[in-house]
Amino acid sequence: MISFEKQAFELFAYQYHHNDVYRSYCDLINVNPSDVKKLTEIPFLPIALFKSHRVSCSEKSEMVFESSGTGGTVSQHHVASLASYEQSFNAGFSHFYGAASDYHILALLPGYLERPNSSLVFMCKDLIDQAKKEYSGFYLNQFESLHHALTDLNQQKQKTLLIGVSFALLDFCEAFPMQLQHTTVMETGGMKGRRKELIREELHERLKAGFGVDNIHSEYGMTELLSQAYSKRNGVFEPSPSMRVFVRDVHDPKKVSTTGSGGLNIIDLSNKESCAFIATQDLGKCLGNGPFEVLGRFDASDVRGCSLMTA
User: Fold this and answer.
1) N-term to C-term CA, the chain
2) Which residues have C-beta within 8 Å of that of residue 35, sequence separation ≥ 6?
3) Would strands 292-297 and 277-287 be described as parallel, antiparallel, or unpaired?
4) Domains, the chain, ranges and CATH?
């Protein structure tokens, strides 16, 4: 099996030569494949460039995923192969949770479901299609139906996954508090302007109390990536095998390490035809050997590097 490092170096060379936006960025900061000896030396493209540029190695797109956003310009990810995305998220899900077909999967994703080009909705639809059919599906503001489904599945002791955006999960469990013994509750983050933002600890405490569960799981993904990370407790994420997560110095983006706090940089080997090396706008902490936490987001004034290519 080819090592992660070897795949990353080969992908860097490929994308440098075939992705005009990425190559231009690398040239602006004076880095090319012959200069790079470590993963942390590979240039990480500022994620905001997905809002202003077509970041792709291919002229054709099978799908263009768009970020949710709360106003203004949204990110666009031109995906050359949906099969690659399907393979990636299925491999990641099965790595952490087993086969989707073992679950009843219920999704509460208002805000996302109303948009046709959401990568999260695409992923959840595929997982739901693989899941046990009774009650599996999307519940758009159908709280009574969702409550009935969760109650019935719990009484039947059925293995169930409820995945939802944070504000909707809070709205639901406040209206219908439950005590679930056979359900994994997974939040995908974000209040999307619908409710006051909460720190993770408070959000998870409210959700644990509302659903009667010991732990809240979390999914970490984004429009610009094709892989996900998952947290099963305490907000500590484990990346899928196709990912590596690093931190960059908030004052010097070229200083990248495997431990400590700073901006999160991600290598996603599944992103073969766009850009596999992304400098996100998330602040976080890498705990060494893979696990990481998400601590918040940069303010717009803190984002450095994007201005190099806004012209």
Assistant:
1) 42
2) 41
3) antiparallel
4) 4-60+242-309 (no CATH), 84-223 (3.40.50)
Q: What is the pLDDT of residues 48-84, one digit of tens each?
A: 999 999 999 999 999 999 997 656 789 999 999 999 9
The token pair that represents 251 in the structure block:
């004052």
Q: What is the pLDDT of residues 215-230, one digit of tens each?
A: 999 999 999 999 999 9
Contact between residue 145 and residue 176 where contact means Cβ atoms under 8 Å apart:
no
CB 281 within 8 A of CB 253: no
Tell me phi and psi for residue 70, to 5 degrees: -125, 30
Range name among 160-164, 182-186, 236-240, 304-308 with the lowest pLDDT average: 304-308
What gap in Å lies between CA 296 and CA 281, rounded to an integer?
Answer: 9
Does the structure show a pLDDT above 50 at 309? Answer: no
State the Cα–Cα distance between residues 223 and 239, nearest whole angstrom: 16
At CB < 8 A and 24+ separation, what contacts does 56-62 make? 56/19, 56/21, 56/80, 56/273, 56/274, 57/14, 57/15, 57/18, 57/19, 57/272, 57/273, 57/274, 58/273
Give the separation between CA 217 and CA 219, rounded to whole angstroms: 7
Q: Of residues 28 and 300, which shows the higher confidence score?
A: 28
102 strand-pairing partners: none
- Token digits of residue 229: 């990370």
Q: What are phi and psi of 128, to 5 degrees?
A: -65, -40
Q: How far apart are CA 228 and CA 218, in angstroms?
A: 10
Question: What token pair was written down for 211?
Answer: 């659903």
Q: How far apart are CA 291 and CA 220, in angstroms?
A: 12
Q: How many CB atoms lie within 10 A of CB 37?
A: 9
